[in-house]
Each structure stands twice: as structure tokens, then as C-alpha cells.
Amino acid sequence: SLILPEGFKSTTPSSTRILPGTLMPSSPIQLRFYIDIMDSTASGIYNSTLNVTYRGGIQIFNIPIQVSEKKTPKIMLVSSSYVPSRVYPGDSEVSILVSLVNSGEDKAEDVEVSLILPEGFKSTTPSSTRILPGTLMPGLPTQLRFYIDIMDSTAPGSYNSTLNVTYRGGFQIFNIPIQVSEKASFNILSVTPRNIHAGDTKVKIIVNLKNTGNVDADSVSLELIGGNRVTGTTVDYLGLIEAGGEKSAIFIVDVDENTPIGDLNAKINVIWLQDGKMFTQSINVTFNILKPRSLIDNIREALSIIAPPYLLVILIIAIIVLVILIAATGRRK
Q: Does the CA dihedral 125-130-136-138 come out positive or negative?
């Protein structure tokens, strides 16, 4: 029987005891024992004892066991990056690239890698932040790609995501930084006019816009979208609007005469370039549609366009005087 030191155990209850029966003189035999070495056993030299008993006697022998340092896998994070290199609130399908290498002496099996995202981020798909590479062999780098979305409400700043790497017999955790850049943001200060008659043509709508962000916006243009009720010149190019800057867009539109009276919900799309990337922000606006103008309204408006009010008064007085003179001249004749 083989008597084991602490840190060792029989593989089975009978794997360290053998009954060879009769040993003949000068006839060697080979015996095989099976043992397990516990995980907690340190590397070094250990002595086990071989007890040989037979009829009329007993002999004891020392059996040394050399335990070497256990070979284990060790996962290292080589690099991490994301594409595009600058990301903003509202970006989708951002690619997170992670390079791992097994720097240990043993292969890592049943490997599972998960990217845990902070608040304000989400997986592009339910499985786009979890990868099962299987086995990582020592010394061979592996590149993994995850896909994430950044919510519109996420504030610019530095964020940390967590990369969990689990494998048979162990796990490791790494930090993956993500820097969210600021993009321009716009508010509409005013829209004039808000009251428009159904059937009006060549209505000049002026929109005052402000860049409320802390970054400049280049090649800014505005588009007025009112469905099929509002047509005409509905796009205006404003160019560069610096951080905190204001500019005005002008649209010249016709309003369908069959537009229902009341609120007309429209939308203004702000389109701009920043760091070579195109962005769009939609802002809702509401117009009050009035009933179509009468003939008198049209004449009054036409006259108001032709001349200022005080000239209209003078013109009316002149016409009255002219009529009186013509009537007086007729009487004399």
C-alpha cells in the first residue's frame, strides 16, 4: 500500500493498495498506483511511504514525488479601441475592439467574454456584448468586436465599461474606457408668423435659431417639413454657427387652401457637420391655420403692400377731392 502525505489523496479508495499475491525470487513485477494532487498543494518534493507486507515480514520504502508549479492560463488585455474614434450621444452600432492574449502556460478553455456597459449605453442587439471564443491557446492574440449604442440623453464625458473574461478554473476583469464627445445643440428662439391663412401664398416665415452647445456647428441648414400642406422654399443654408451663436432662416411657402383650420404641427430639421460627421436634430413647431382670406382681406393686404397707411389716407383724400372737382366742373357746363 502507498501511504500519501498531506495534500495528496487516492484517486479511488483502492487505487493505492495492490495485492500481487506471490512474488517469486528474481522475478520483478511492476505495480501502478493512482493518486490525485489537491489544488492547494504547493510545488516541491514530497515523500510517500510504500508499505510491503508479506507472510512473516514487512518492509518500508520511501517514494519521492516532485510537484512542479501548476501551469495555468493567464488572460491579458493587449488593447482596446472603438470605431469611430470620436463618438457622440445618439450614436448607434459603435464598434468596441478588444485584443486579448493568453500569456499563461496552459490553454484557457470554455472562455466567455462579456462587456458590461454603464448607464446611458446599451447593446446594439441582445447578443452584441457577449462573445464565446471557446479556447485561447497560450501566446496567440485574439481580437473581439462588440457593438453598442449610446443613448441621446447620455451626457458628454468619460465612461468606464467592464470586460468580464471567464474560463474554466478562473476569471479576470478589465476596464474599457469610452470617451463621449459633445455635439452642438439647437433651440428655436422664435418663429414668425405663427398665424397663417389657408390658401396664403409666398408667406415669409422667419426662424431664429441658437446653438446652445459648447462646440461650433459647420454647414448648418434648416428644413421646414409641413407635410403636403406647406410647399415652396422650405430649405435655407446658414453656414457656420459658433457655440452660443444665433442665425435666422427664411422660408417662402404656400399653404394649401384646404388645410384644416387650427393647429398645424410641423417640424424643423437642423442639419450640420461636426468633425466631418453629419448630425440632425428635429424640433417641433406649431402654426395656427386661420380660415381663408376674403376678397376684401386680399385687397386690404395688397394695398398695404403697395403703400404705407399714411399714403393710403392721402390717396383716398385725393380721390375724393378729384371726384368733387369733376362733379363741380360738370355743373358749370
A: positive
Q: What is the pLDDT of residues 54-91, one digit of tens each?
A: 998 999 999 999 998 878 899 999 999 999 999 999 99
pLDDT of residue 70: 78
Q: Would you call 58 helix, strand, or coil by DSSP?
A: strand
Please state, in angstroms and rounded to a whole number, the distance separating the CA atoms of residues 150 and 117: 10
Question: Is 0.85 topped by the overall pTM?
Answer: no
Answer yes or no: are the C-beta atoms of 264 and 234 closer than 8 Å: no
DSSP 150: E
Pairing of strands 94-102, 141-150: antiparallel
The residue type of 67 is: V
Phi then psi for 322, rounded to 5 degrees? -60, -40
Question: Would you state the pLDDT for residue 320?
Answer: 74
Instruction: Report the distance separating Cα 129 and Cα 132, nearest Å.
Output: 10
